[in-house]
Amino acid sequence: MTSEQQGEQQTVRWGFLTTGKIARKVAADLALVPGSELVAVGARRLESAEAFVAEHAPGARAHASYADLVDDDGVDVVYVASPHALHLEHVRMALEAGKHVLCEKPVALDLAQAQEMVRLARHHDRFLMEAMWTACHPVVRELRERLASGELGTPRTLRAELGFHVDAAPDDRLLDPVLGASALLDMGIYPLTLAHLLLGAPERLHAEANLSERGTDMDVAVLGRYPGGALATLSASMTSWSDRSAALATDRGHVHLEGQFHHPDAAVFVPRDAAGVEGEPVRITGREPVVGGGYGNEVAEVARCVREGLRESPWVPHQQTLALMAQLDDVRRQVGVELPGADPLLPGDAG
């Protein structure tokens, strides 16, 4: 057996740090990924870890603290799914314990924290990836490739929106500023990421927002100018139900993403000729299947990178994560949102 074959058969052993809603979704998809196994779960209370194990990974080890989880010698990768205000602390713990890390999006509260994570990963020679499942989604990756080839024409305008009405207690993660509550961070990162993936890094962004009495951005709208003069209108909301759609117009037709744009069922390109007459729609799907709800594809990508000894994913490279954090900082500065624990943003800091 060659070393390559041995690498392909290596089981990547996962430990989950926290047991919340997103962790449950990722665990369900992880169970569908060959060569990945959930072997340990850490929570602030042993009962929570044991309940999670019983539901998602019978036989896995339950730990009553995050420190015990990251010190578990049987864990290769720690999945950090705590509130983003705690990401730096927990990512640091895992990296210093010698573990590879997949960290939920947004990876941090601000660019400075994200840069520190990348520095730590490089210092400890460990893999680090933001859990941006949209960038790992087969449909989105195929759409990016076809756009880059010129097959679909030159992008001119993009629209993407993501919103839902948050009805929760004031101390809920989605509403508590201390835990990083923000429509921009929770939802806005998705339309900004889609624009970055399809259009490139923005040349400039202009933002407006509605803020709560506690200073949390509840609704955010962003107008972006991208390379080649492409424009994007992007929005996020915690007060209204959007259709979570996205559409891209090119000089040869238009593309709409079926289903929710951040994990679409397919992309459909409707071409038009010089007279504006519609041609036969082209349905774009991925070259490989969507695993579970889509989280399985990012799990598989982390496992592939770990087996191959990579320290970052080509689908979610560190530079892309840092560039998007800079965009979030820029928008946050423009709308006047200050997050406890984040560095104060001065004019021009993230522009």
Protein architecture, described:
- This protein is α/β, with parallel strands linked by helices and 351 residues long.
- It has 11 helices and 14 strands.
- The chain has helices spanning 3-9, 21-30, 46-56, 66-70, 87-96, 111-123, 133-136, 138-149, 183-199, 295-307, 318-335; strands at 12-17, 36-42, 61-63, 77-80, 100-103, 128-130, 155-163, 204-211, 217-225, 231-237, 246-250, 253-258, 266-271, 282-284.
- An 8-stranded mixed β-sheet has the order 8-9-10-7-11-12-13-14. Strands 3-2-1-4-5-6 form a 6-stranded parallel β-sheet, with helices on both faces.
- Strand 5, helix 6 (111-123) and strand 6 (128-130) form a beta-alpha-beta unit.
- Helix 2 crosses helix 10, helix 5 runs parallel beside helix 6 (111-123) and helix 6 runs antiparallel to helix 11.
- The protein is globular.
- Mean pLDDT is 93; it is low at 1-7 and 346-351.
How large is the radius of gyration?
Answer: 20 Å
Taking pLDDT < 50 over at least 5 consecutive residues as the criterion, the unreliable ranges are 1-7, 346-351
How do the SSEs run, as a string of H and E? HEHEHEHEHEHEHHEHEEEEEEEHH
Output mean pLDDT: 93
Structural class of the secondary elements? alpha/beta
Total helices: the number is: 11
Largest sheet: 8 strands, mixed
The percent range for helix content is 25-40%
Number of strands: 14
Distance between the termini: 52 Å
Describe the strand arrangement of the main beta sheet, using strand numbers. Answer: 8-9-10-7-11-12-13-14
- Please state the overall shape, judged from the principal axes of the Cα atoms: globular
Portion in beta strands: 15-25%
